[in-house]
Structure formats: C-alpha cells, structure tokens
Amino acid sequence: MTQYWTDLVNRLTPYTPGEQRSGSDVVKLNTNENPYPPSELVLQAIADVSPDSLRRYPDPQSSELRKTLAGYHNVTADQVFVGNGSDEILALAFMAFFKGKAPLQFPEISYSFYPVYCDLLNITPHMIPLNSDFTLPLTQLGGKCGGIVFPNPNAPTAIAVNKSDIEKLLQNNTSTVVLIDEAYADFGAESVIDLIDRYPNLVVSRTYSKGRSMAGLRLGAAFASAELIEGLRRVKDSFNSYPVDAVAQAAGIASMGDETYYRETIKKIIATREHTTELLKAQGYRVLPSAANFIFVSPPDRDAARLFAELNKEDILVRYWNNDQLKHWLRITIGTDSEMKQLMAVLNKLHSHG
Ligand SMILES: Cc1ncc(COP(=O)(O)O)c(C=O)c1O
Questions:
Q1: Domain, as residue range, for 246
Q2: Per the structure, how many domains does the chain have?
C-alpha cells in the first residue's frame, strides 16, 4: 500500500503465475508447458531473422502471420487478430467487449486470470457454479449479462464441452459477446472457430504456448467476425501498436508449416495423459476426464496441500490452489513419459511411507 499508487493499484490482487524454478533435476509440471520443443522449422525461422528486421519495428498488423493463420483455419485475414500471448488477447477483448457493460459471466472454477482482468477493468464478475461433477452447466449461462467467457476445455478441471452445446448457447445469446478461450483445444476439444461466420458475436482465442510449444515466445490469436476483430485492433492501437515482435511473427508463420510434427507431439502427450490417468486411478486418485495437456486430480486421502508440499520438496512442481473449492485438488501438467515416471516413482515412495 502506498500513497503514490492509485486506489485501483492499491486494491489489485494480481494473478500469480506458477513458479519458474530451473535446474536439471526439476520436474516442472506446474504451468502446462509443452514438454517437447517447437518444430525445427520454427528454430530455423528464428535463426534466419535478419538484422534489418530486428533494427526496424515489426509489421504492426502482423499481416503475413494473420494471412497464414487465416489460411490454416479457413477464414479470412480480417477475421484474425494476433497478440502477445493469449493473455493479452483476453485483456484486450475484456476492454473491447465487456468493460462498462452488465456483469460478465464465467464459471466459478475457471482460468484465474478472468477475475483479475475484471478487477483491473472494473467489470463486475458474475460467476456461475460448476455442476457437482465439475462439468460446466452451459444451459445456465447467458440471459441478461454483459458477455460470457469460458475456456474449452475448462481450466483447471480439463473438462471439455461439446461444440453443439456451445452452438445452442450462441443461438440463445446474440446480443453480447461470447468469448471461448481455446488455449488447450489442441489436446482434445472441438474448436468453434468455424462458427465465426454464423455468429458475429463469437470470439475464439487461441494460444501458441501449449500445442505449438512456444510459451517463451508469447503468441496468441483471436478469430471472430471482421467487426469484432476491428474492435480488438482499435483497443490494441490505443495501447501498444507492436505487441507481436518480428521474431514471434516469423516463428508463428513457420509453426503453421509443420503439421506432422505437432500432430505427433500432441498424440504423444495425449497417450501419456491417458496412461498417467490409469495409473493414478489404480492408486485411488480421483482424476477428472481430461481433454487438455494437464490433469486435475485429488489424492486418496484428499490432502492435496500436503502432497503438493511433499512433491515440491522432491523438486516435482505441480499447481495447488489453497481455497475452499480447490483445496483437495492438484493440477498436474502432462510431461514426457520419463517425467511422469519420475512423478509416479515419488508418489509410490510417499504412499509407501504413509
Ligand atoms: C485457460 C487459459 N487461457 C489462456 C492462457 C494464456 O496463455 P498464453 O498467454 O501463454 O497464450 C492460459 C495459460 O495458462 C490458460 O490456462
């Protein structure tokens, strides 16, 4: 608290990212990073970035990258927006479509950045409780509100909803923006990008941090009607004209040219996820059905806080939220087979010691 900060800054509770501990012995399963490197084509494109393109400002509209993403997703370039990670896209979308409107609906258990943006932008949150099995009660969303946002699959539960159910929601809610955060859709959810032509109030955000292994580069995209994309551009150009640097633009373009590689890595992650789920269930863990690159698990004695601390001592980092609703649960990112083996070995050791 200081007299020099504004009242707003004095009362903010910022988002707390997962710990970025480094070291060769650390098994890092706490921030949903991809355990595999980006495609060789991406590394080559980064190496090929010319001194001139570093000396100059990047293309403020990322035209080539947007054209590439449009071609990939079968939309037009004016239906694509790119930003410095999808966190930035979400922040710009909250400013463009939700600030100053009626309360914004999102699930009570969801991406913890949504309430932070609401706080920053003075948007009233209207949180919708999940069903008791942690599924999203889609039919309870909508009606009188200033907009709707949720991740599909949801985070941290990892549970996905069907495209047909999202379409019903869109049919019933045409007057405010519906923002679907598809950060983890590559790992098993049905995308709704192909619905943007039919629903001019639909925004789909995507990240290249997870499925495309580029969390360190910071690249996200939004797909929507040209009218909504223009809204995002107006906010961006009132804030930061060059959010996507020249290196990220080149790498983003290259990443869309190596589909075979990404399909393989995603397939491996899904196989590891299913295997880990089986092993944990056999040990009495509750594991929610995951369509993401992480699993949400509750240990047999439900003491997730203790397990989190014990794993941490063994240099195995997972995510834990110390609040009433989530205190019995851990979110575990799917790593390589070898990392998951290390996790299982430590869990076996901890359980055998009681
Ligand atoms: C649901 C969800 N949306 C968006 C993001 C932001 O991803 P990025 O800013 O790396 O694109 C994350 C990151 O963890 C997330 O979990």
A1: 40-255
A2: 2
| pLDDT tens for each residue of 183-221 | 999 999 999 999 999 999 999 999 999 999 999 999 999
DSSP 130-171: PPTTS---GGGS-SSSSEEEEESS-TTT-----HHHHHHHHH
**pLDDT number for residue 22:** 79
Query: What are 41's two structure tokens?
Result: 């084509």
Answer whether 112 contacts ligand 1 (Cβ < 6 A).
Answer: no
Test site for ligand 1: of 34, 187, 207, most ligand atoms within 8 A of the Cβ: 207
101 and 203 assigned to the same domain: yes
pLDDT at 352: 83
Strand partners, 332: 295
Taking 80 as the threshold, does the pLDDT of residue 353 lie above it?
A: no
Q: How far is the CA of 350 from the centre of ligand 1 (A)?
A: 31
Q: Do 223 and 289 reside in the same domain of the chain?
A: no
